[in-house]
Structures are given as structure tokens and as C-alpha cells.
Amino acid sequence: MTFRRSPLALAILGLLENGPLHPYGIQRLIKQWGKDQVVNVGQRTSLYRMIVRLEEAGLITAGATERDERYPERTVYHLTEDGRAVCREWLAEILSIPRNEFPEFPAGLSFVMLVPPETAGELLLQRRELLAERISELDGELVLEVEGGPIPRFALLETEYQRAIAVAESEWIDRIVDDLTTGKLTWTPGPV
Length: 192
Hints:
This protein has seven helices and four strands, in the order αααββαααββα. The protein has helices at residues 7-16, 23-32, 44-56, 81-96, 104-109, 117-142, 157-182, and strands at residues 60-68, 71-79, 145-146, 149-150.
């Protein structure tokens, strides 16, 4: 069975590398480790559906059901050898091969001509302000400590990457807004 990779599937397989977990534990670790900044676990149902799909594909397997009077029964999942191999394969592909991920911002830019250049400039300035806030948040995450010591750099690589992307985007917006302000970049609004 060919399984289409996703950030959530990778996160589940990656977390199970450390040992068996129940779905709530997986979700808690994703949030606790800040992986929710790169993996969407907002809906618990998405997590449960992905766990079912990974189990059906033979990448994880259900183990014992834990019982605790404070919580409902929880099935613990284990990583299979196939799951470990697939996780490593996905990591190699993701880390080595650039892929067009179809983010919204470039899609919006492709239709910027529908608004006046002045409006585009104002909207881009708003975005730049939000990016500045995000960069500040990421800077804060990069200096967080756990148990009195710094978080190992390898655990913050995705945060470093997000910061670099946000800084590059902010600098690009500055250049575009400057070109809009000076008239170097302009258009007549409306359909092309």
C-alpha cells in the first residue's frame, strides 16, 4: 500500500520512534515540543483519522489499552519496522528534494493586479508588521530554556528555518513596497 506522506503522518511516526504512545500523548508532545508550528494538530479528529490510516497501512500497530480512573481508556500505538523505514525514507525525501507546497501568499500575489497598487502596498505593509511580530516570537522561542538549560539547537531547526523565511519575506516586502512607492512597480487594477 502506498501511503501519501504528510507533516502529521511524519510527526506521528517520528514521535513513536521514542516509544509507544496513545493519541492524546502524541498530540500533547506535538504541542509541548512546539511542533504544532509546523504540523497542524488543531483538530484531534485529524490526528485520530491519521492514526487509523497509519495502522491500516501497517506503519504503526495498536498495543495495550491503558486504564486510569482519571481518563478514558487509551490505546497505545507502536511503530512497526515498516513504519520506521517509511519515516526514514520520508525524511530523506523531505530534506533533500525541494517541493512546491502551494502556499497562499504567492497565490494571492499572482492576482495582486486586481487591487490598486496603493492598496497592495498598504496590505503588504500590514503583512510586514505581522511578520515582524512573528520574527520576535520566533526569537523568543530560540532562547527558551528547559530545566535551566538551553534547548539543543537540533530541536529548534524548524524554528530557525521559519525565522529565516519570515525575515526573507519581510525584506522582500520592503523592496516591493519601495518599488510601489516610487512608481517603479505599478499597474492598472482589474483583470489582465
